[in-house]
Amino acid sequence: MSFNKIWVLDIVKKLFFVYIVFLLFMTIFRVVFFTYYSELDNFSNFSFDILKMLFLGFRIDLTVIGYIQAIPTFGIITLYYLNNDKLFRIFQNFLVYYIFLFYFIVTILLFADFGFYSYFKDHLNILFFGLFEDDTVALLKTFWENYSVVPILSIFTFYLIFLFFILKKIFKNNSENLKLIFLIKIPFFFFLFLIVFNFFIIRGTFGMYPLGKMIPNVSTNEYINKMSQNGVRAFITAYDVRNKFKKSKIDYIKETGFENNIAEAFKIHKKSSNIDEQNLLNNITYTTKKIDNQDYNVVVIMVESFGMPILKYQSEEFDIMGNLKKHFEEDILFTNIISEGDGTISSLEALLLNIPYRPNSFPFSQSDYAQTSFSFTPAFLYNNEGYNTSFIYGGDSTWRDLGKFIKYQDYKAVDGKQDIFSSIKVTKEESEYFHPWGIYDEYLYDHILNKLEKSNGKEMIVALSTNNHPPYNIPNGYKSKILSYSEDLRNHITGDFALAEQRLKSYGYALDSVGTFLDKFKQSKFKDNTIVVITADNNTIEGIMKYDNNPIFTAKNIPIYFYLPKNLKEKLQIDTTVAGSQKDIFPTLYNLTLNGVKYLSIGNNLFDKTVQHYGFNGSMIVNNGSKVRKLNSLKDKSSDEIINYYKASLAVTEYLIKNYKNEE
Description:
Elements: H1 3-36, H2 47-82, H3 85-120, H4 127-133, H5 136-146, H6 149-172, H7 187-203, H8 222-226, H9 231-248, H10 252-255, H11 262-270, E1 285-287, E2 297-303, H12 325-330, E3 332-338, H13 344-353, H14 378-384, E4 387-393, H15 402-408, E5 413-415, H16 417-422, E6 434-435, E7 438-439, H17 441-454, E8 458-464, H18 487-492, H19 497-522, E9 530-536, H20 551-554, E10 557-563, H21 566-569, H22 585-593, E11 598-600, E12 615-617, E13 621-624, E14 627-630, H23 641-663
Parallel strand pairs: 2-8, 2-9, 4-5, 4-8
Antiparallel strand pairs: 1-11, 3-10, 6-7, 9-10, 12-13, 13-14
Helix pairs in contact: 1-2, 1-3, 2-3, 2-7, 3-6, 3-9, 11-23, 17-19
Subcellular location: Cell membrane
Protein name: Phosphoglycerol transferase
Membrane topology: Multi-pass membrane protein
């Protein structure tokens, strides 16, 4: 009989047992956590959702066990081939202290998460590290006054002694496991299975994205969704976010050359030497000039990856626009527009905050500003004017911690994919409504129409779609309107054409869906009292296309479309050739919908012919009219008016953010 096989099976059995015990502890802890902070009036209404939450939570806890097991897995394999009894005994003793150490760390993080939640109503995030950057003595006093520190430490000490005793006892008893020896008859396959199984536990899913990277919603109730997370995974995510944030923390006033003369940046941005130098923010504060007395609903839709360049190939055979085509022809379409960012979050935050995306900056939603309420932003203004404000996302609101950040921006309703799904009449298998990133776009748009229909007042809605995103799924039963591809288009696509074809069909579905939404909208009563804006986050199809003309601009080119009620549209003279980006959308809407309201913005009203218009992109690209400039570095000095305007605007943006944070 091979004793090294017996050692392997004995250690694996012991590890399995201690992990089961600790998983049970983590589950009990989650139940206590859930019950202690519960925001639910009645559990029975959400009983199935709670069970789904607990199961998802168990899977997330299991990923933590997977990380702990990684070293024992490779240790067992190594020792098997060394075939030394003494080393196995040393390794077994080592495991007692190794597992105790990690269980100690896990327990500390679970309890830290519990305490953190009592202050922030959220799991550990980047703000957790800020606690240690505050007055340490004051922090310790706070804990002493708010918690029964002595009893807690006493119980915790007893817990640690008990934990160590249990681990010691489990690993002290040896057995020969002869009945299970057949499991390791072929060691290579047994160890291969062990490695693969360990990897799968860490990953947590067979899906596209690891479970810890994105935690799906299981309920329409936000609190239940929160409870799937655990303190360990929350800490890992927060630590990763903090490291990235620290690396990307840039002083844009210094980078752009205005460190000792920020007033000069305001002068360049305002194109005037006559500015208020005592209160610089007054220079970017404006008052709306509404041209009628009509109240309007506002709907702003950001369509995933909707770049303009591919539309030049539109034809009957390559009908990528579908139902959207006629609306682009009938209504107001700005085409000299570039995206603020090359990723979704950067462009979305530029839209939501009326400011440019600062190159290489970290998302507000995952930074020190995650719980900062920027009260100069759209939802605050519209709420003050009696609007109902909503943010609707076709995916999970946990993405980029977006849902939480949005709530701090005063959106009264934040709906994710589960909220959308729960609002529709289900007529087929649940899975047919979803793709890996969220719910299919058509249901998002139906949700917007339903919200308008059920409204008892004025609505301001911002929505973000999820289709036209890898892996480029389209719903079962949807018939693509793309029938063939011209030779010209084929010659301009790089890489695998089969993948590009799949991507273009998803693109077509996304545009056709928003076109169908406009069809339905224009047949409703809302066509007379609602303004609709459609734009994109970026033009990610640039990655598989080559451009003949003006590639710097074309690669970043996106649309901004406006539907205006007929009576309003007839009162306006609009130049749709002006430059712009997402920062300009809400300043334009303010002047169409709000009367005599003061607002603060870096962006401009696109309909205002008295000012020059600029589009900004985070790759340090700026356009003005037909001119396009690209910087290599913000530190580069230039006499170019367009470049200096861009740099000054970034410095003004940084000043706004820093001073606003200080006021908070």
